[in-house]
Write a structure and sequence with these properties.
Oligomer: single chain
Number of helices: 27
Shape: elongated
CATH superfamily of the largest domain: Na+/H+ antiporter like domain
CATH architecture of the largest domain: Up-down Bundle
Number of strands: 7
Distance between the termini: 28 Å
Structural class: mainly alpha
CATH topology of the largest domain: Na+/H+ antiporter like fold
Radius of gyration: 29 Å
Largest sheet: 5 strands, mixed
Strand order of the largest sheet: 1-3-2-4-5
Number of domains: 3
Length: 619
């Protein structure tokens, strides 16, 4: 799962800023700009029109972000604007600099100062002594810390605006009619790394409340509803719960498999040294919890089927807590646990396929093999259209569904077959973009309306920057996170808390699940991580400390999604399954509380003064 945090202003707007109109306005628009940046010059008249249209409803703030490596005169021009501000004429100089962008040398700035009526002797001395260099640098560093990604970068009411710069787009974002407001709220929520865990938690709470309410009978009836279809000689009939677990969850595992493929090709698992630590940690997090469970249940064949339950880590919940802990969980820790979770998922999928398949049908496996040959044949033939892969992928899933081998494997094999092209040569693509943009600028207004080919070309270039596998992962990931996983939680987490179920908490199965997740997981992760580090097989990433890794390893005991999935595959007895699900919920809550507490206790908040200053961004 990719981490994405909504960029916010770290330096609040105040009286120190250069403000057009009142800061009491309902909308505050902040621009980080560069006086030598051509894009800033292009957007300048658009902003002027916007301010005229909005009047007192918007306050406009300008902050300096001179990108000196590309624009050698930008720093001095920013200092000139501050020198003009000291004489009460910031906005006059601001206008002059953008309307005379090719005249930003020292002598040019003196002429501008004279033209707007400044005391040129004071102005010259302040420029020569760089009196306002620190003021400009303060703006620049606030932009770096706020996530400025080039010039111009805009913030609307403290949140970075990543939309288009044309007048209508900016006006729409600022006016925020109801539909746009709801859309922006949804976008901000889904960009929050913790949002997947929040939605999953809501599904779990609703399921628990529903299953223990006066309408519990309706809950059970809903998931026992039979649904089926006939396709030629193929008849399929499953209850709604089985369609969720064996159907919808295949899409979830496809996204997981695509993430694994991406990480192996170009991510944290791409090189042996980078992959060693998370792989060893994941291996320990699988073996030790399984051993805990086996110790408590050895000699009971029925209970032994559940040995795979405590091996899982729920990525959504774990990363949600790490994200909400903010600076106490450094980025290197989040990246490490993302890689660990992906390696853990590989182990979990293998366990499901190898140990929870039953009643093998060799005919169905043969049909699955034919579909698989077709998929890899299309890959070999460099077919990049997703539709044929989707059709054969559904056939592959149906074949495995009838084969007795767990259909999860269909997701993994389909992900392997979906092509991952080599990264494109960006030079010809950039040349093509430049040509298309020039063509667009030369077109008349009528040609804009009747010439969709330009837009189609731009879309094609953007698509080429990603492989089919990457595009599919990005398309399916939101559906998996915000629809499939909550439905899975709603269908599987509805445990009726009865005396019989709570009595099983201290049964051998209960001890195996709870201790396997809460104690076995952190012991396994920490022990094998320590071995990997001490033997030199791996190295600790970034600024991560072993205390933080040890504390966060407690969070890995939140098995939830995959643990519930394996429990459904392991046990068919409804009473036993309900008790096991309650064990999983209790263990996940304990692991979450212990892990959060340990991180709060042992992780220190990094000092702002010790942060390294990133290199200036390019416009």
């Amino acid at each position: 799962m990719e981490l994405e945090i909504i960029p916010k202003l770290t330096l609040p707007v105040s009286e120190r800023d250069h403000v057009k109109r009142s800061l009491d306005a309902p909308v505050v628009l902040v621009e980080y700009g560069d006086y030598e940046c051509p894009h800033c010059q292009e957007v300048y008249p658009i902003l002027h029109e916007l301010k005229e249209r909005m009047g007192d409803r918007v306050a406009y703030v300008y902050r300096h972000f001179p990108v000196s490596r590309q624009h050698p005169n930008a720093q001095l021009a920013a200092e000139a604007a501050e020198a003009a501000s000291a004489q009460g004429k910031f906005w006059e100089m601001h206008h002059r600099l953008f309307t005379h962008q090719n005249e930003l040398g020292f002598d040019d700035l003196l002429r501008h100062a004279s033209a707007i009526g400044l005391d040129t002797d004071i102005f010259r001395r302040e420029l020569e002594e760089h009196t306002y260099a620190d003021r400009v640098r303060e703006d620049f560093m606030s932009g770096v810390r706020s996530g400025v990604n080039g010039t111009p970068t805009f913030y609307i009411n403290g949140t970075r605006y990543d939309g288009a710069w044309d007048f209508e787009s900016l006006l729409e974002a600022i006016e925020k009619p109801l539909g746009v407001q709801i859309s922006l709220l949804a976008q901000e929520f889904t960009r929050l790394a913790a949002s997947g865990g929040i939605v999953l938690l809501l599904g779990t709470i609703i399921a628990m409340l529903w299953a223990n309410s006066p309408w519990a009978g309706a809950y059970l009836q809903l998931w026992e509803t039979e649904l089926g279809f006939d396709l030629g000689g193929l008849h399929l009939s499953r209850n709604l719960l089985e369609w969720v677990n064996d159907g919808l969850m295949v899409i979830f595992f496809l996204v997981v498999a695509l993430e694994i493929k991406r990480e192996i090709r170009a991510g944290e698992l791409a090189s042996p040294r980078k992959a060693a630590l998370p792989i060893m940690a994941a291996l320990g997090g699988i073996l030790v919890p399984a051993m805990f469970y086996i110790v408590f249940n050895v000699g009971n064949p029925q209970a032994m089927r559940g040995w795979g339950i405590p091996i899982a880590t729920d990525t959504a919940f774990t990363l949600a807590i790490l994200t909400m802990l903010g600076s106490r969980a450094p980025l290197s820790l989040k990246v490490f646990f993302t890689a660990l979770a992906i390696a853990d998922d590989i182990g979990g999928i293998l366990v499901i396929v190898l140990f929870y398949s039953k009643g093998i049908s060799w005919l169905a496996l043969g049909i699955a093999a034919l579909f698989l040959i077709g998929l890899f044949g299309m890959n070999w033939a460099r077919i990049y259209n997703p539709l044929p892969y989707a059709i054969l992928g559904i056939g592959l899933w149906l074949a495995f569904l009838q084969s007795g081998v767990h259909p999860t494997i269909a997701s993994v094999l389909l992900a392997m077959a979906i092509p991952t092209r080599r990264p494109p040569n960006t030079r010809p693509l950039l040349a093509q973009v430049k040509t298309v943009v020039e063509q667009y600028e030369m077109a008349s207004e009528e040609e804009y309306i009747h010439e969709p080919a330009i837009v189609q070309t731009m879309e094609t270039i953007i698509e080429r920057m990603q492989s089919p596998a990457q595009r599919l992962e990005r398309t399916l990931a939101p559906w998996s996170t915000y629809l499939i996983l909550p439905i899975f939680a709603l269908a599987n987490a509805g445990v009726q808390i009865s005396a019989e179920a709570t009595g099983q908490l201290l049964s051998p199965i209960g001890w195996g699940v709870i201790l396997g997740l809460v104690i076995g997981k952190p012991i396994g992760i920490s022990l094998l991580s320590w071995i990997a580090l001490r033997t030199g097989m791996a190295e600790m990433p970034g600024d991560l400390h072993f205390k933080q890794l040890l504390s966060a390893s407690l969070l890995a005991g939140m098995g939830f999604t995959l643990s519930l999935f394996i429990a459904n595959a392991a046990f068919s007895d409804s009473a036993m399954l309900a008790a096991v699900k309650l064990n999983i919920l209790v263990a996940s809550i304990l692991a979450g509380v212990l892990g959060t507490g340990a991180l709060l206790l042992f992780s220190r908040i990094p000092s702002q003064t010790t942060q390294l200053e990133p290199a200036p961004a390019a416009d």
